[in-house]
């Protein structure tokens, strides 16, 4: 059209279709969200991201490897999406994934969040050793350190008859500790807590109480009470120490002469046993071990026992002072003898017939 009028029309070829123009989804991620978002525990986490695209994209938030976010309040429109978590704690740390999608495509961004809090509980608390006065504990660091380095661990104990824990070690810098000076025969619970600059974290506790005991000492003197052509009756004294746990039974073993292997003859609860089914005229050796809930003692063998004393006191064995006993000899060896070795040495040999 001009001042003279309207000219001839030009026709558009084909049949145009009226529809919205498609735009792939886009998001405007703030520079602060591209860094690690750090905030203190009990604060509110707010993640706000403008979005665009045609048609309007759908927004989806997830955490870590796709797990849902349970405590979050999520608000999404055609122009933005936001995630809000109030009163955050250590478990709200991690990666937050935002995916926006429409028919033209999808886009994902990850925001790293660190909540500065006390640590979570240590992992895998184990008891590696128990004696009649000490227990050794080991553990792994917490899965979540609270966003800062673990300073130390706190080790606590509780007698099974009490409700309150007592601190044993307040500044343990290793992931293992031996709790000593425990009462023999008592049951204890133990727990460990990690500490960082924000405070003391959650505890991990032994699920069951631990009895402070160990395997017993060997039984005392063994006496041959009776012998027949096909049986032997033995008696013995209780161990000097039961290891802190009652001796439940005794294991009697037998070894025929000329045979290297010991075999179990019987298990009894009393300090006497009769072993039958023996061959007349054949020689046998016997030994007895005590057993409690922690294990089996070293065996005590029937026959002579040898004891060395110096000036009436038991001789102390060291790397310099050694004693070697066989069935026919006892030998005392002192390397680099000195004036401290002067004295009266006494050998005492004892068997079932006398001393």
UniProtKB/TrEMBL annotation:
Chain ranges of the Fibronectin type-III domain: 121-215, 218-312
Domain (Ig-like) ranges: 16-110, 304-355
InterPro entries given in the database record: FN3_dom, FN3_sf, Ig-like_dom, Ig-like_dom_sf, Ig-like_fold, Ig_I-set
Entry GO terms, CC: M band
PANTHER family assigned: MICROFIBRIL-ASSOCIATED GLYCOPROTEIN 3, TITIN
Name of this chain's protein: Titin
Keyword set includes Transcription regulation: no
Alphabetized UniProt keyword annotations: Immunoglobulin domain
Pfam family, one: fn3
Claim: Nucleotide-binding is one of the keywords in the record: no
Record-level Gene Ontology MF annotations: structural constituent of muscle
Gene Ontology BP, a term: sarcomere organization
């Amino acid at each position: 059209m001009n001042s003279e009028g309207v000219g001839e029309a030009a026709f558009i070829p084909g049949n145009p279709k009226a529809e919205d123009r498609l735009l792939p989804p886009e998001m405007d991620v703030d520079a602060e969200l591209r860094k690690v978002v750090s905030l203190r525990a009990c604060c509110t986490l707010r993640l706000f991201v403008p979005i665009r695209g045609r048609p309007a994209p759908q927004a989806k938030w997830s955490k870590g490897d796709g797990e849902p976010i349970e405590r979050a309040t999520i608000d999404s429109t055609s122009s933005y999406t936001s995630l809000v978590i109030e009163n955050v704690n250590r478990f709200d740390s991690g990666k937050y994934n935002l995916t926006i999608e429409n028919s033209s495509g999808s886009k994902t961004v990850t925001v790293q969040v660190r909540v500065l809090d006390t640590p979570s509980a240590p992992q895998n608390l184990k008891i590696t050793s128990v004696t009649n006065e000490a227990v050794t504990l080991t553990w792994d660091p917490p899965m979540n350190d609270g966003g800062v380095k673990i300073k130390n661990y706190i080790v606590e104990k509780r007698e099974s008859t009490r409700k309150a824990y007592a601190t044993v070690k307040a500044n343990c810098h290793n992931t293992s500790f031996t709790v000593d000076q425990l009462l023999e025969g008592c049951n204890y619970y133990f727990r460990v807590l990690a500490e960082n600059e924000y405070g003391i974290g959650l505890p991990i506790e032994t699920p069951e109480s631990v009895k402070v005991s160990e395997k017993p000492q060997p039984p005392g003197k063994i006496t041959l009470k009776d012998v027949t052509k096909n049986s032997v009756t033995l008696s013995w004294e209780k161990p000097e120490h039961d290891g802190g746990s009652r001796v439940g039974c005794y294991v009697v073993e037998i070894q025929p002469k000329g045979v290297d292997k010991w075999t179990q003859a019987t298990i009894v609860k009393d300090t006497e046993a009769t072993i039958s089914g023996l061959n007349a005229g054949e020689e046998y050796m016997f030994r007895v071990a005590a057993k409690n809930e922690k294990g089996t003692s070293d065996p005590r063998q029937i026959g002579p026992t040898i004891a060395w004393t110096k000036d009436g006191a038991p001789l102390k064995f060291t790397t310099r002072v050694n004693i070697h006993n066989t069935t026919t000899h006892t030998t005392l060896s002192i390397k680099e003898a000195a004036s401290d070795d002067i004295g009266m040495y006494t050998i005492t040999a004892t068997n079932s017939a006398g001393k």
